[in-house]
Amino acid sequence: MFVLGVETSCDETSVSIVKDGKEVLSNVVLSQIDIHKEYGGVVPEIASREHVKGITYVFDKAIHDANIRYEDIDLIAVTKGPGLIGSLLIGVNAAKVISLNYNIPIVGVHHIAGHIYANYIDNGMEFPLLALVVSGGHTELILMNDHYDFQKLGETQDDAVGEAYDKVARVLGLPYPGGPIVDKKANLGKDTLNFPRPMVDSGDFNFSFSGLKSHVINMHHNMVQRNEEINIEDFCASFQEAVTDVLVNKTIQAKNHYKVKQVIVAGGVAANSGLRRKMRERITDIPVYFPKMAYCTDNAAMIASAGYFQYLKQGKADDLLLNGQSRVNLEG
């Protein structure tokens, strides 16, 4: 089955062709990072306009790179949410035009399901498994007993981990996007500041990062006020050690409780080198998988893979009333 994936939930315009949920024939991604750097974050109106400018190009290039025709496509999978509503509508409406024009069935895919299935492309899945979803807008532990069967065990009660990274980076004077820069700086520093590990032993699978973020910001402010020397690398290392300790500890607790066969990490923060290293060091009894770097950030290949399994699971396509939704429940 050839699946055409479409992803426009935030600031990447992406189209991909994936065979049987696994074999990526093409994956075209237009990033807007350089445009939004000037503003220190994604500006929704600008993101929407850039999607409009790039959407035709990525469709044409994805088809060309895969060396197939639209008539060969068996299914269209498009991100329906969550995300920036203006951005989502560009992708959804473009996908619906192709669906209508070529009479191809279409399914609307949850963005986080896509991030989870990014792992299937290179690693496969063995159930039951535990997925740690870590991104700019999400921090969740998801149990899967079968394909496209999602049970949320816990989530952040405030800031997502990626959001905390970006806010700490801004306070430290680091450029946008802050997460990758903090990660690089952390590898050059030491955990000298002993930041708190919030909710690490709370007895549930929820997270909280707003207090840690505020602690880091306040400490930085006080050191500036006292004219003390600030070691940016040590700040980043101390922050990253605290964050990854919480993420890994919670994952281990859930892994042991539900006796899963596999742990997968999904979302943009899955690219974090500190998290990758600590997960693999501390979980040795079962496989721990991360997506390839190209599939950590937003891309259409992951949406095509997820859409393939969604279509098989639900046994039918969506109708053309399909629309973008800024908020949507992963568990249906």
- Summarize model confidence as the mean pLDDT: 96
List SSEs in N-to-C order. EEEHHEHEHEEEHHHHEHEH
- CATH level-two architecture of the largest domain: 2-Layer Sandwich
Name of the CATH homologous superfamily of the largest domain? ATPase, nucleotide binding domain
Low-confidence stretches: none
How is the largest sheet built, in terms of strand order?
3-2-1-4-5
Query: How many β strands by DSSP?
Result: 10
Largest sheet: 5 strands, mixed
Structural class: alpha/beta
The outline comes out as: globular
Number of helices: 10
Task: Describe the structure using short key phrases.
332 residues, alpha/beta, Nucleotidyltransferase, domain 5, 2 domains, five-stranded mixed beta sheet
